[in-house]
Amino acid sequence: MSQSVRAVERALDILLCFSMERPTLSLTEIAEQVGMHKSTIHRLLATLESKRFITRNQTNGLYQLGFLFFELASIMLHDLDIHRWAMPYLEEISLQCGETVDLAILDNSHVVYLQVVESTQRVKIAAAVGEQLPAFCTASGKAFLAYLPEKLVVQILAQGTTKYTENTLVSPEDLFKNLRQIRELGFAISEQEYEKDINAVAAPILDANDCPVAAIAIVGPSYRMSRDRMLELGELIKETADAIAKDVGMAALPVILPRITTPCMDENTN
Q1: Do residues 95 and 200 share a domain?
Q2: So what's the pLDDT on residue 208?
Q3: Which residue of 73, 184, 191, 209 has the lowest C-beta tally within 10 Å?
Q4: Does residue 264 surpass a pLDDT of 70?
């Protein structure tokens, strides 16, 4: 491996140290995570900072991801043309039900939120655009898993199932039973499975091969989102997901959305 390639790998390792849980890091913390000397890390950080990949807080000396990532993400989202075909649907559902509505894709074992239309109510729940949450215990994530080949679901669950609340399903048996129910209903329900007092209902947007390429969800506080209410909203969200697929053209969906959102495509072609 050439020295230049090794330097690129080290720089990428540094960037991957940052997460939603740890958005800011010290030089020492980065060096410990990457396993390199501070002097080497400091030189790489200086280069990343000069290119706006990293910024350093002058007050406390902590590092965080730079605004260049936001610019790059904006370019990607614009290229996906999500605003054109998804936003009107999300806004209409939010207007009808009065709750937050979001659009997510699957990235390995997590869902990533691409669009969020927040509820106008005083008490509301909303993920941040770009936020990642576990797929196995969220409505959007389970809407994906229910339509993936069992082999892929097993691989995803093998990466870990943390019991976040007393309602979180963690055993493969319970999860697969739940996924079968979701497939029968056509939509997924999460009753305080990831976070207490938060409920959600989601449906997958399927391509021509019934492969999930995205999911839309309605999210709200549990006192407003009872099970009966979620069953009612589930029909609405399912109809909307189907309408989006037809509007865009089911065959074109894998092209419009990132490849990572169509994991069963590779499975079907093997």
Answers
A1: yes
A2: 77
A3: 184
A4: no
Please give the full DSSP string across 109-137, using - where no structure is assigned.
TEEEEEEEE---SSS---PPTT-EEESTT
% pLDDT > 90, the chain: 61
Q: How far apart are CA 116 and CA 39, in angstroms?
A: 41
| Structural contact between residues 248 and 137, judged by C-beta atoms closer than 8 angstroms | no
Q: What number is the average pLDDT over the span 82-99? A: 85
Q: Both 166 and 103 in a single domain? A: yes
- Phi, psi (deg, nearest 5) at residue 12: -65, -40
Q: What whole-number distance in Å separates Cα of residue 132 and Cα of residue 19?
A: 9
Among residues 44, 66, 88, the one where a domain terminates is 66
Is the pLDDT score of 22 beyond 50? yes
Residue whose token pair is 């938060």: 198
Check whether residue 180 and residue 214 sit in a common domain: yes
Pairwise CA distance, residues 139 & 145, whole Å: 10
Cα 47 to Cα 194: distance, rounded to the nearest angstrom: 38
Mean pLDDT computed over every residue of the chain: 87
* pLDDT tens digit sequence for 135-158: 999 999 999 999 999 988 998 999
Report the length, in residues, of the chain. 270
Sheet holding 54-56, edge to edge: 24-25, 63-65, 54-56
Burial of 33 (0-12, 13-18, 19+ CB in 10 A): middle
262: confidence class by pLDDT, cuts 50, 70, 90: very low
- Give the domain range for residue 149: 73-269
* Res 259: pLDDT: 41
Q: Are 73 and 130 in contact (CB under 8 A)?
A: yes
- Count of the separate structural domains present in the chain: 2
